[in-house]
Amino acid sequence: MLENLTVKDIPGRYKELVDNIGIEGFKYLVQMHGGTLFYVPTFETVNKLYRNRKIRESFRGDYNETAKRFGMSRTQIYNIINEK
């Protein structure tokens, strides 16, 4: 039934979502998550996760050098490297 859904069928309050993710993305959300509530993280949160992964991948044992490379404090780098 969803295969024939078009933008014209979408209620106004969902138009912005469809404009951003497209009709196929909207169909996927409806099919997989329809009727549920879920949190979408902020850009800053996702960016921080990516940054922390890059820090861990590039860390070679020198907290000071890594801190300089990423423009952060040694303590911040230590905490990221030693996160559980």
From TrEMBL:
Residue ranges constituting the Mor transcription activator domain according to the UniProt record: 15-83
UniProt keyword Amino-acid biosynthesis present: no
Record keywords: DNA-binding, Homeobox
Name of a matching Pfam family: Mor
Gene3D superfamilies linked to this entry: Homeodomain-like
GO molecular function, a single term: DNA binding
Domain of life according to the entry: Bacteria
Protein name: Homeodomain-like
Organism of derivation: Romboutsia ilealis
Taxonomy of the source species: Bacteria, Bacillati, Bacillota, Clostridia, Peptostreptococcales
